[in-house]
Write the structure tokens for this entry.
Amino acid sequence: MSTGISTAKMILFGEHAVVYGEPAISVPFTQALIKTEVSPSTENQFASTFFTGPIEEMPPFLDGIKRLILSIQKLLEQPEPLTVKVLSDVPVGRGLGSSAAVATSVTRGLYNYYEKKLTEEMLLKLVNHAEDAAHGNASGVDAITVVTEKPVWYAKGKNMETIHFAGELTFVVADTGIPSETKAAVADVGVLCKKEPLEYMPLIKELGGISREMKELLETNIDKIRIGEAMNRSQSILKKLTVSDPKLENLIQVALSAGAYGAKLTGGGRGGCMISIVENREIAEKVVKALQANGSAKEWIFTIGEGKHEGDRPSTYECGIN
Ligand code: MEV
């Protein structure tokens, strides 16, 4: 048996705007991992909590992964059947990049199984291909963050750089428990920007402006209060773009009242997760308690920065299945 592992991702600034060529800042979310196990089999099988059965019969929402497995087998000229089993503690459809993370871990697992060298460039190409099937108009920010496992500054078709944070940051992430409708949210923002460009395109530009401002701050001077304010500004713009929802708004208010400097949705929105920035672990624990008492489905405390550019991957990793 061979394995492939990947992390989730968390967008700090610039979601939705990144679809229009504005920059986004995204980090690997190492609190949630995906592991793929590949083993020989009598027929081509896929196993996961979302679907178990022959690869040919995978449901439409797994089209990207199905296409990925079949195209890797073809590319590497390996027609023998196998079982691809995905174990995940990344909640599906919560704005944490689960589709890019599954594609990355499956690709790594298959290349390890076939004992073939996988370059980062090739991995990115394969994951982007799978993401196109999953999201339609994906900007590529999820794929680049998950594949590089580094905080990234990304502007579609223009620029991608690794960011080094000047200090440590602590976030509390909370899951609304509601699947995020990324594809529909991206499409609806597209309709708004097309129908009323004078009203909505300045909002997209403003989100890009916040990413630019925050890149400089994150790389030179970790001012948590200013980062929190920028998160609040982003959230009010994302709300105007119609991608927030009452459950996200509620968790955001709970986090702010419990002492977070700022909070916003992350990823596609309309369900999914919210992120909040806090001063330290002590405040983070207070925020977690408040969120637990007010309807969040799951919470994580996540630190990143100061030599921990890859985040604080848990020291013992057990593949929880959800
Ligand atoms: C999804 O994680 C981020 C969005 O900006 C869509 C995309 O960039 O493909 C909403």
User: Anything to note?
Assistant: The two ends are 22 Å apart (CA to CA). Residues 69 and 274 are 32 Å apart (CA to CA). Confidence is low (pLDDT under 50) at residues 309-322. The first strand starts at residue 2 and ends at 13.
